[in-house]
């Protein structure tokens, strides 16, 4: 092949093939084959009205049965488009991009330890965030002194937080919570009743009444009656143990 022929072939290949990345907008994400493919409008290549065929997904992990990363963009999302070996009939979507419509960044905003979304995008970007269209969020915060993992169920605002203090789970609509620290596990209801478990025992505090279990002793009390202790032992006149002691004026009902 002469130099002129080689140049002609290369020129023809370049003119009729499309290499590199092009901006596109998702038109359809309901792939009938269930492969995560998209139909995309790519104005700079196909014009403003023409839509691609099903564009194959290019993802960071997968390629085998029932494993991989499955994040399919929503209709209207901005995606980067390539064409396999430059051929328009083989489109590929290879990622997404954010814009600033009306001057506001589309980057997902971080959430605080309470699961509430903050007002601004992070600066500097110390957290890694996965956030869905409904607001469900998984966030990994690497900021020094504030390292934590937060999981938020957005519809009911259920929040799971793991940080230096321990693990906290809150029920967004019911107001109940569970907390695990180095020294105790506690369950708190919306009304303020608590169950606390420590190395020394278990305490149930229901407001007007409490139950405390420590070792072999059980302590019962309320706001309107004296305390009952079961399991305290002393030595009687003849040396026998006294298995139960009750404070003055206590009433015990069988």
UniProtKB/TrEMBL annotation:
Residues 22-98 form the Gp5/Type VI secretion system Vgr protein OB-fold domain. InterPro entries: Gp5/Vgr_OB (IPR006531), Vgr_OB-fold_dom_sf (IPR037026). It comes from the Bacteria. This is Gp5/Type VI secretion system Vgr protein OB-fold domain-containing protein.
